[in-house]
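Q: Could you fold this chain for me?
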Amino acid sequence: MMLFRRRVEIHTQQNGEVRAALEDDFHHFRVSIQHEQGIVTFIRGYAVRYPYTACPGAAMPLEALVGMPLSDVAHSVTRATDGRHQCTHMLDLAGLAIAAAARRTHDLIYDVSVPQRTNGRTSPLLWRDGREYLQWQVNGTLIEGPAPYCGIDLNHGMAAWAINTLKPEEAEAALLLRRCTTISRGREYDLDSVEHAAKTGLCYSQQPVRAEQALRMKGSTLDFTNHAEQLCASDQDWFAGLEPNLPLQKQQNV
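A: Sure. Below is the predicted structure, expressed as structure tokens.
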């Protein structure tokens, strides 16, 4: 059975810089942040593998997060900038890095798998630092179990519910699992059949002003069903302190 997979790795450098990477079937991004006295002072995004030619340009609006206070609630980045003008996944990653800095977490790894749906049902699973942390039974967009998630709809009010109901670390994991469960449906379509991004206005590349110029990066979807060890494997030198040589407007082979 085919699995959608995502890995998120976060590591703090000796100088306090937080480096975070995200890789899944459709995306591969990196974000680094620096902070002083509880404030984000520097942020940089790197596009490694991405669905549309415009995606690397979203690294610049990410700089709107400079000046925001550190928060242990990863979702706080959505109050500091308008997510519709950001890369959804780079912004999520920045939030996770900022939350790690706020908690003084040195190393953190999330792994997610979402099995191919059968009659609309799937059982997404999230590991935190190698240990099983969350698993849901999902039917369509509705979480059927376990408690306290029973009856929660992935697409309607879940973020507010999670932040107000769960402890920050569990809310963070739950919203990461929600994101993966939602976007995993992309495996059900031939994404390369489209020429450019849709004009939904929901993210940087899908803004109507640039969607038609945001051309599909054909062949950018990978399958990690039987190769989970490859996720974020090419980020290890960067985590070790080396600077990536990634032109912002050109896709890299990974």
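A (continued): Residues 88-103 form the longest helix (16 residues).
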